[in-house]
Design goal:
A hairpin with an 8-residue loop joins strand 21 and strand 22. The N terminus is likely disordered. The chain folds into two domains: 318 residues, Peptidase S8/S53 domain (Rossmann fold, 3-Layer(aba) Sandwich); 303 residues, no CATH class. Helix content is 16%, strand content 34%.
């Protein structure tokens, strides 16, 4: 019984089907010019053609590694096979071959062709010729364990030496595209589990010890952050017998669990992604088994041509190449971390959820090279949220696309892999978008309802408009009331509306609110950030040499923004925001200029809790936890005729931001921001009671200021240390939003009213973005 076991144990599965060849010459991109002629220009190398020659490489999304600059450079892949031919595809990267039969090193050659084909899939060069391997800059260590006839006849000591050579020569991964036709369950059925363990140990005790030594101490002497050897990874082809389990060499961790952290098995799929009929399934090895292309894959032949072969022999080197790529980029990772990254990030959707067939799924290099698990800024765990991920920071639209001026920072995933990330990814920005339903409800006749009541000598004006949030008011309607007491005194209140209305900071009063298409009226930029406000003001006359001066004092409190805050794509754990109240105080003095004009000066302060200029600022790159803004402005109205009124206004503010504990921001200069508007309004131009409004305005925009931040910009995984840089970035918006609005409302016969409007936003949200165009038409009638 033991003799039978020993014979089957060394049988190899290299059943690989040839299906044509391509010569190097046929794939060349140019040839020497004839004598006495000037050389032709150097041809452009078509790397895409090289990549696309072999469907297997893009199928596992290997170009993601190429695009990120991950090439396997400096990593050695041990190819335990029939040798590797000295081809141009391996120039400068092919190490001397260990011949396990002759117990010596020699120049590498391949008398079978199998090893050369395997090596090409792992590491053929990206040179524009032929095909390209997964880790195309990795070194190749040929270890000859397969004879010319495709069989392996090594004894335990020879095979053990082969694995030791891999460790001593600095290999990170040892690819084994050979196996036994006997499966682990067959051994267990024949011997029992304990008997199978004993039989394997008796037959290959030295080899098992050498394999364990490689898993523990392979990797070319590299160590992790704690000084421990990173270890190596052993990859085995599953086998080509179409069985439910791999050959037992691909299931060794079942008998020797200490190998599990550095062990992978590979099964073969075709170009449809399905397991081939002849590939063994993952079966008992499913916990450390991956699926990879293995049917009619293209690679290097020992005679310098290219051909198509099939077998799990060729799935294994694709997995080995992926190991090399990860080890190159993060050389401090333990072998157990490398294997877990490939296993956990493999595609497990659809058919790949069947672990008995596909194990942990289809190899996916794009996912393997993406941050996994909890993601934190390097050296700054305090910037994570309670949910365990990078927290989002939010910038107001007044800053424009501040995030586009990103600096590189380093983040670490749950495997302590470092990734470069732009600070723009840490900044999420609410964007003012057009709410068609809300605009139609408040636009034109019926959009803002004004009622005037005279009682006991007091004139009361009530205005009802749709509340932006519907948080207050009656039936979703915001309300503004003005009580004219007499002798120039008046009191105003507002609930569920912007405080610009009740504080007297809108041009032309409230009567024209229904002809503005934007969700914020043509008013004061520093009151605009408050939504659904509760506000109150008092107006009184001032006596003096200049008659008609009115002084208005007002106070309002409201929400910071109506926009919902979302987590940036790719980052997790954004902290929910509890709405905080913001306050604005305003003092306005209106002075008549002649009989037709009035000029108003205003001063005030905006006190924001948890927000800056209307939007919250939190997380890793939040500018601050609160802000205090002082502002001043001037506005004016002039009756150009009995029907036409001109208006204009300009405000400037200075904002001091208080820092946020734990944020990257070390300091913020005083911010300078502005808003302005000009326009005209007319009544009765073409018909009695018709109204026309035209305006050009700039919403609130940051004009100056800068932020200073201390950013983690480098990480050394071997010593687990972080490098920091201090950077300074301007906060002025890169573009200037200009909003042009026009609207016309006219009553028709039979109680029918027609309202038409249009709006154009240039550089919306103060960004370099396409212009927005909006048109509205509303027909209403009373009945």
């Amino acid at each position: 019984m033991l003799e039978l076991f020993r014979k089957t144990a060394i049988a190899i599965c290299v059943a690989c089907l040839a299906s044509g060849a391509l010569s190097v010459e046929a794939l060349a991109r140019g040839k020497p010019p004839p004598k006495n002629q000037d050389p032709e220009p150097t041809p452009v190398i078509d790397y895409d053609a090289e990549l696309n020659l072999n469907w297997a490489i893009p199928f596992i999304k290997a170009p993601s590694a190429r695009d990120a600059g991950y090439t396997g450079k400096g990593i050695t892949i041990g190819v335990m096979d029939s040798g590797v031919a000295n081809l141009s595809e391996f120039d400068g990267r092919l190490l001397p071959m260990w011949d396990a039969y002759r117990n010596r090193f020699s120049n590498s050659k391949d008398d079978n062709g199998h090893g050369t084909f395997v090596a090409g899939l792992s590491a053929a060069a990206r040179d524009g010729l032929g095909m390209v391997g997964v880790a195309y800059e990795a070194n190749i260590l040929p270890i000859k364990v397969i004879r010319r006839n495709g069989a392996m006849g090594l004894n335990d000591a020879q095979l053990a030496t082969a694995f030791d050579v891999g460790r001593l020569q600095g290999a990170t991964v040892l690819n084994n595209s050979w196996n036994s036709s006997t499966t682990a369950p067959q051994l267990i059925n024949a011997y029992g589990y304990d008997g199978a363990v004993t039989a394997i140990n008796d037959a290959y005790s030295a080899t098992l010890a050498a394999m364990q030594g490689f898993v523990n101490n392979g990797g070319g002497g590299r160590v992790d952050g704690g000084g421990a050897a990173v270890g190596g990874v052993i990859v085995f082809a599953a086998g080509n017998d179409g069985k439910s389990d791999p050959g037992w060499w691909a299931s060794l961790p079942e008998f020797k669990p200490d190998l599990a952290g550095g062990y992978l098995a590979a099964v073969a799929v075709d170009d449809s992604g399905a397991i081939t009929s002849w590939s063994d399934r993952c079966g008992i090895s499913q916990a450390y088994c991956l699926a990879a292309p293995g049917a009619a894959v293209i690679s290097t032949k020992s005679n310098g041509t290219y051909g198509a072969w099939s077998g799990t022999s060729f799935s294994a080197p694709i997995v080995s190449g992926a190991v090399a790529v990860i080890a190159q980029q993060w050389p401090y990772l333990q072998s157990s971390a490398v294997t877990q990254i490939l296993l956990t990030t493999a595609n497990k959707s659809g058919i790949y959820s069947n672990t008995a067939v596909y194990g942990q799924g289809l190899l996916d290099m794009n996912a393997a090279l993406t941050p996994a698990g909890e993601v934190l800024l390097a050296g700054s765990g305090t910037t994570s949220t309670s949910g365990g991920g990078l927290s989002a920071s939010v910038s107001s639209t007044a800053f424009g696309n501040f995030g586009a001026r990103g600096h590189k920072v380093v983040v670490l995933d749950s495997y302590r892999r470092d990734f470069g990330l732009s600070t723009s990814a840490l900044i999420d920005r609410p964007r003012d978008t057009f709410d068609t339903q809300m605009a139609l409800s408040r636009f034109g006749f019926g959009g803002a309802t004004t009622e005037v009541v005279n009682y006991a000598g007091m004139k009361t004006t009530l205005t009802f408009v749709d509340s932006p949030l519907g948080a207050y008011g009656y039936n979703g309607k915001g309300q503004a009331a003005r009580f004219e007491i007499g002798d120039g005194y008046a009191v105003s209140f507002g609930i569920g509306v912007t405080p610009q209305m009740s504080l007297g900071l809108t041009p032309l009063g409230d009567q024209w609110r229904d002809l503005t298409l934007a969700d914020k009226p043509l008013g004061h930029g520093f009151a605009a950030p408050l939504q659904d406000a509760v506000s109150a003001s008092m107006t009184m006359p001032l006596t003096g040499p200049v008659k008609g001066i009115e002084l208005t004092l007002g106070l309002a409190t409201g929400q910071a923004s109506k926009d919902s805050i979302q987590t940036p794509v790719g980052l997790n754990g954004a902290e929910p925001w509890n709405t905080r109240r913001q306050k604005v105080f305003a003092l306005k003095a209106a002075v008549p200029v002649g009989e037709r004009a009035k000029v108003a000066l205003n001063l005030g302060a905006l006190n924001e809790d948890g927000a800056v200029l209307g939007t919250r600022q939190t997380g890793t790159f939040g500018l601050g936890s609160d802000a205090r803004t002082s502002f001043a402005g001037v506005s004016g109205e002039m009756a150009a005729s009995e029907k036409v009124t001109l208006f204009a206004g300009y405000e400037m503010g200075w904002t001091k931001v208080n820092g946020q504990t734990g944020a990257l921001v070390g300091g913020v200069d005083t911010l300078r921001s502005t808003s302005w508007r000009v326009g005209m309004a007319a009544r009765g131009l073409a018909k009695k009671r018709d109204r026309l409004l035209f305006s050009v305005s700039q919403p609130l925009r940051v004009e100056g200021g800068a932020v200073t931040a201390v950013l983690p910009t480098s990480y050394n995984g071997f010593t687990d240390t972080v490098g920091y840089d201090t950077v300074r970035s301007g906060l002025a918006a890169e573009r200037r939003e200009v909003m042009v609005q026009t609207a016309y409302a006219v009553p028709l016969s039979g109680g029918v009213d027609l309202s038409l409007g249009g709006m154009m936003r240039l550089n919306p949200n103060n960004e370099n973005a396409p212009a927005d165009f909006v048109g509205l038409a509303k027909l209403g009638w009373e009945f």
